[in-house]
Design brief:
Helix content is 16%, strand content 26%. Strand 8 and strand 9 form a beta hairpin. The protein has a five-stranded mixed sheet, with helices on one face. It is built from three helices and ten strands, in the order αββββαβββαβββ. With 184 residues, the chain is α+β, with helices and mostly antiparallel strands. 21% of the residues are buried.
């Protein structure tokens, strides 16, 4: 019985591929699912309704403009919450019983700045870590502090510290990663 209970505790603590943790000292709660934001592109498929299906971008006002249905709020909604909103808008008015699928086709980019060879904006892909992001930016410069990075997440107030020795912190869309200069 205790093995089943402990298995439930371990499984309950898993956030899945979208969850993250920066460091043991980080006090911010980890999100359990990806939330849409400005610049994301989604593919919406309405079964047997090709005129209502397609790829749409979350615009500057935080909405997705759908044919016939108009503007659907998207910012800060999970994929399932956004899908439920689309179904609610379509049901009855345009489609009797809408069957909808939603997937993110293009995530907003992340930025790498500081002591890297090619600072800039890069395309996000799921499973990316801070070490991968530094590699995409051409690696460290000779002045870089290779042990510590700073990550500023979307919708957070400050930077979180990431120790690169052993920690595989994930990168999320919209993150800003700063590689500081070493002092000695």
């Amino acid at each position: 019985m205790s093995a089943v209970v402990s298995l439930g505790i371990v499984a309950g603590g898993c956030d899945g591929p979208r969850g993250y943790a920066l460091s043991e000292s980080s006090q911010k709660p980890a999100p359990s699912a990806y939330q849409l934001s400005h610049g994301d592109k989604v593919k919406i498929t309405v079964f047997n309704e090709p005129d209502l299906s397609g790829e749409f971008q979350v615009n500057d006002s935080g909405h997705v403009a759908l044919p016939l249905a108009g503007e659907v709020p998207a910012v800060d909604k999970t994929i399932s919450e956004f899908k439920a909103e689309v179904i609610k808008i379509l049901r009855g008015r345009y489609v009797k019983n809408p069957r909808v699928s939603v997937e993110v086709t293009n995530y907003r980019p992340f930025n790498v700045i500081g002591e890297v060879r090619n600072a800039g904006q890069y395309s996000y892909r799921p499973g990316l870590t801070v070490q991968d992001a530094v590699a995409m930016a051409g690696g460290y410069t000779y002045r870089a502090n290779t042990r510590t990075l700073y990550v500023r997440r979307v919708n957070t107030g400050g930077e979180d510290t990431v120790q690169t020795d052993g920690e595989r912190a994930p990168v999320l869309p919209g993150d800003n990663i700063r590689v500081p200069e070493r002092y000695f």
